Amino acid sequence: MELNNKKIINAWTFYDWANSVYPLVITTAIFPIFYEAVVPQTVDFFNFKFINTELYSYIISLSFIIVAVLSPILSGIADYTGNKEKFMKFFCYLGSLSCISLFFFSAQHIELSLVSVLLASIGFWGSLVFYNAYLPEIATPDLHDKISAQGFSKGYIGSSLLLIICLVLIQVFGVDARYSFILTGLWWMGFSQLTYARLPNNVYNKKPTGNVLFKGFRALKNVWIELKNIKQLKRYLAAFFIYSMGVQTVMIMAIFFGTKEISWADEASKTTGLIVSVLIIQFIAIPGAYLMAYLSSKVGNIKALGANIFIWIGICIAAYSVVKTPLHFYAIAGVVGFVMGGIQSLSRSTYSKLLPNTQDHASYFSFYDVTEKIGIVIGTFMFGFIEGITGDIRESILGLILFFVIGFLMLLTVPKKEMLN
Question: CA-CA distances (angstroms) from residue 86 to 73, 75, 263?
């Protein structure tokens, strides 16, 4: 396949436009507010009592465990058969249809309703394994930072556009918030077709024979052996594992911090304020992603990531000790947006640059994905567990600082490589 083909690159980045509506509308903005409104503070789940946000964090953690188990197995099969696109489509449709099913969410049937939350998360994160694996196959390493930033930027713009549409329907026309979940699923499924129309399947023209499952496992085993012998890749994954615990947990649980800890004038201003803060994050994340790509070209990926992590430490300290008013919340949302775009984009492209000359990109990215998902499981579980014990969500925020500090120190141990340092 021709590398650096603009049409293929644009098609690849457009999947960010399609699927980013899930983390914004479902994970960050409308659904968490809807969840807080319809689910009591204390909820009975299979005869066990939980704080509503504590239970939510556990369900999200479970989805990451499932993805962490499935993605290496499926990626090995995808690499052996060359069918990354088919697996990507499966998870895409699973996630988008699960978003649509959230229309029927009911606190009276909380166990069944949370299945939709679980499957939507599995669909989103599962599809990203195969999506990310295309990056080293469509472009040369010198363009990875820029293309990764372009993808995330399209995602921020597209998801913000749908969020604004949903808000207009809810606030101006009085449409039930549940319809925004249907729109999210349709947007994700519909716009992904632009990606599938140009993104090639079976890039290396593989012709599988015999037991696909067995040979998929063998391909995965070979990648694992290779990975263990690449010191730079191994140490980078270890650092990424730790700092991503903090990053992803903040992104998933921040909206609940806003609902519980900020002194809003009333319920209406709280809803408006939370949405405004989310949009601030989205739009500032766009220049943040490009600026970090530019910074990495000047000082290297590792130093750029290190600077980014330092800002995340400051965010956690401020959230714990200072952020109490809406103005404070808007200010910290701007800072979160700036570093969110940068660290997501740069983390993906840095890993891509470290990969050896291989055809097993899905298997390699499955280890990246598993590392991230296990980190999120630990991060979100710890977040919910601390709140469950202390009853104070600020204590949970404080606990995240440790992840960023250790992640930064581990990043310093990554051996130098010309394209990274």
Answer: 15, 11, 47
